[in-house]
Amino acid sequence: MDTVARSPEEALRPRRLLRRNPLNFRPWMPGDVWGDVMEPRPIGGRIRAVRRIIFAVLWTAVSIPVQSVLMLLPGRGSIVFARTYHRVLCRLIGLRIQVIGAPAPGGSVLYVSNHSSWLDVLVLGGVLEAAFVSKAEVGQWPVVGTVARLGRTVFVSRKRTGTGKEAEEIQQRLAGGGSIILFPEGTSNDGTRVLPFRSSFLAAAQHAKQVQPVSLVYDRLGGLPACRRDRPLFAWYGDMDIATHFWRIARRSGGRATVLLHDPADPAAFPDRKALTAAASDVVAEGAALLRQNRPAQPLRMK
Description:
Elements: H1 8-12, H2 33-38, H3 43-72, H4 77-92, E1 95-100, E2 109-113, H5 119-127, E3 131-135, H6 144-150, E4 154-156, H7 160-175, E5 180-182, E6 210-221, E7 224-225, H8 231-234, H9 242-251, E8 255-261, H10 273-292
Parallel strand pairs: 1-8, 2-5, 2-6, 3-4, 3-5
Antiparallel strand pairs: 6-7, 6-8
């Protein structure tokens, strides 16, 4: 039998194509929500997302009138139910929560945390019995604004004329034994780092009995450790719209957020507000870095 010498490239070339048209791979995270719905992906992810969204809407519809009544009644019923609402909502959208450390005992605690997504509100709201401080624009959003108001959120405007009244409201909350959650970065980011804290956000620290830093990282996706490539899936920043982001999160399985509660400290132990801000920022950033690297993490102490 005669043999014909061929080049390696020719020898490795298939004799015939099994497909007339080559496979076309599309980006896994397109910009348009309907493009994400119609892209070639397993139907199971879409069914999962629809199911989760329906349950989340139903749970919210039931919780709004319940919380409205509890806010009119004396006691801590509205505070406890707000935490229950956030925790259940996280489970309904497929997000598990792991907590390392413990919240500071007693009330009048100022929690300071890094911020990468609107999911931070659900996660921290399900772990801590505290109210959030948010920009005034959130209070005007449909549904989200209603839920935020029922969660006793303090809305802060960017106008100088309203800062005095808002600072007084935060002071009254802390003086009455309530706790506050702050995001001192001032904005959300892509989840791969912690931005420097702004000292102006910790102006209310002098009215708190304790300040507790919190590191929050989304460290599991599909049951596996999340890597740098996965961070943008959880992060919500820039001009992203919440509906598109919610759809993408609801389609995924095995998501987990880890909350690292560091040792609380007395704000009076620091010489000034800038020193307190720098110490809290360093602790939060160090704890978040450990969680992003999937390394064992323990609560840290501010120095």
